[in-house]
Design a protein that fits this description.
2 domains, about 450 residues, alpha/beta, Rossmann fold, six-stranded parallel β-sheet, eight-stranded mixed β-sheet
């Protein structure tokens, strides 16, 4: 079967994420959950092994995390359920990347042994981020043959799988895979974060050099990776939109007591300097005196500037004009966007502006900045882009979206977003990539 025609049916894919939702960070790596669900919907058998290295600073409220890591069997309650093996414990790297990499790798081996004993050997290890997940995945794969031949212990014979025939459940027409394919999808941006300190950079480059394939979630991230010395082909496959984000017509603009039209504006993201929250606060202050519109502001997310931002806006705007929802699950975010008239994302830089893609999927225009991650998502019929760090231009863009609201075709926005970032697009791209790798294997 030609690789381009291959789908995911019959393949056993194990996700190895650098981030996954936890008690401390319930929205961390939520996009990895989307990958698992989309791959299952495409016919793959999917599981997750997550070494949950809990920073020692969280020891007071890190439930189930001690000095000795624990194996925890979980599942995503989908149909069918998606098994998750979490290895959870406290962790301190002491600013030494090697400590983190090798600990993650040891925990991954332990979690993989548990997973295989229950669900059989995977055909594919799909690591999300080069460090620590990608480096650990290729390190584990290097020991795979030894695992299989070391007596074929009972823990590798579960679910009717024979260690010597890993991949025997794979799609008909594909060769049996005795050693799993490993590929890395890189999300980290700016990519320079993975290269600092230099010791971390060495782990990053080693992982990306050794993997069977490398994917970046945006063209801009690929360019950063190439500039950092990743000298190999890099596919670009954007993240996908979660199933919670579906088109809903925008709410009507009601009238305030003074006759102005009420406009609901949402921000979704980390409340941090690099997300442009201070420019947004200043823009909100400038728009307070607008004679035509009464803007209401909703902040969804958490971060180091939350308290200061709340204090700043409390002094500039009435309390009924500002709402902080804190960190929220995907359903809450989708509902908040559906209740809004637009999303504002004044970021100083985005690897992949997932919040913008989600807003467009709901059918809401986006005001964002001229950064590569946003420019790749927000077209002229999707919203307005403005310069980074310019609150007056940001305020003008927000007002212009409100003043010309009838111009924005929400249904068409949603259709374009799903054509570009929907699950079908993701499956087609990964099926093609995995098909090529399987044929080579």
């Amino acid at each position: 079967m030609p690789p381009a025609e291959m789908d995911l049916r019959g393949l056993h894919i194990l996700l190895v994420p650098a981030w996954w939702p936890s008690i401390e960070q319930p929205t961390a790596g939520i996009f990895n959950v989307d990958y698992a669900r989309v791959f299952v919907a495409a016919g793959a058998k999917v599981g997750v092994v997550f070494p949950d290295l809990v920073p020692i600073r969280h020891w007071r409220f890190a439930q189930g995390a001690g000095l000795i890591p624990r194996l925890i069997d979980e599942q995503l309650h989908d149909d069918p359920p998606i098994p998750v093996v979490r290895i959870r414990g406290l962790h301190a790297a002491l600013r030494q990347p090697a400590i983190q990499m090798h600990r993650y790798c040891r925990w991954l081996r332990r979690g993989l042994a548990r997973y295989v004993s229950q669900h059989g050997l995977p055909d594919v290890l799909h690591a999300h981020c080069a460090i620590p997940a990608g480096w650990a995945a290729v390190a584990v794969r290097a020991q795979w043959t030894r695992w299989i031949t070391a007596g074929a212990s009972s823990r590798f014979r579960a679910c009717g799988s024979d260690p010597g025939t890993a991949g025997s459940d794979s799609k008909a027409g594909c060769p049996a895979i005795t050693t799993p394919i490993v590929f890395i999808t890189e999300h980290t941006g700016p990519f320079s974060l993975t290269m600092t300190p230099p010791a971390a950079g060495r782990f990053t480059l080693a992982a990306l050099r050794t993997a069977d394939a490398v994917v970046a979630v945006s063209q801009h991230l690929r360019q950063q990776m190439q500039a950092a010395g990743v000298d190999r082909p890099i596919e670009v496959i954007p993240n996908t939109i979660g199933t919670e984000f579906r088109f809903v017509p925008a709410p009507a603009m009601s009238n305030a007591s003074d006759g102005r039209r009420i406009v609901h504006v949402s921000f979704v993201g980390r409340l941090a300097d690099e997300k442009g929250v201070w420019e947004l606060a200043e823009a909100a202050g400038q728009l307070w005196s607008d004679v035509q519109f009464a803007f209401h502001w909703r902040f969804i997310g958490d971060g180091p500037q939350r308290a200061a931002l709340q204090e700043r806006l409390a002094s500039a705007l009435p309390s009924d004009r500002v709402r902080f929802d804190g960190p929220c699950n995907r359903r809450h975010v989708a509902q908040a966007l559906q209740e809004s008239h637009m999303l504002v994302l004044p970021s100083h830089g985005e690897t992949f502006g997932l919040a913008a893609a989600e807003a467009l999927a709901v059918g809401r225009p986006v005001v964002a900045t001229f950064t590569p991650g946003c420019e790749a998502i927000v077209g002229p019929d999707d919203g307005i882009l403005c310069p980074v760090g310019r609150p007056t231009e940001l305020a003008n863009a927000i007002r212009n979206v409100a003043a010309e609201y009838a111009r924005w075709d929400g249904f068409a926005m949603s259709q374009r977003a799903f054509q570009r970032f929907g699950p079908v697009r993701l499956v087609e791209a990964y099926a093609r990539l995995i098909g090529q790798l399987v044929q080579r294997a």
